[in-house]
Amino acid sequence: MSKKIWHLCKAEEISPGTVKQIELHDASSEAFALFNLGGVFHLTEDTCTHGFASLSQGTLDDHIIICPLHGGAFDILTGKAYEAPCTLPIKKYRVWREGEDVVSDLSVIEQPAE
Q1: Which domains does the chain have, with CATH numbers?
Q2: What is the structure's pLDDT at 51?
Q3: What does each C-alpha distance from 62 to 16, 18, 44, 72, 101 come to in angstroms?
Q4: Which of 39, 74, 107, 110 is deepest in the core (most CB within 10 A)?
């Protein structure tokens, strides 16, 4: 059985170097954060693992998202906590372009063991 493909947005809706909150009410009660890093899209959970703040409301510095609540940070490329007080990683999900659309099947990308 194949997984459902979710339409997240049109690629033109999210400029390079920005983040957009994505809510898929039929898929999850949690929001997602969609990042455009130089034309490459990354999808993570939107909630900080430390303080329950929306990462899409944070500051994006290259491939690091800084949480707006306590200033902790995550590496978008890996999902790993980058700066205290964050210690737990955020989930990353498969995401890709289909034509002008950004889509995902919401499969979690497993993080390599340290």
Answers
A1: 6-104 (2.102.10.10)
A2: 84
A3: 10, 10, 16, 15, 23
A4: 74
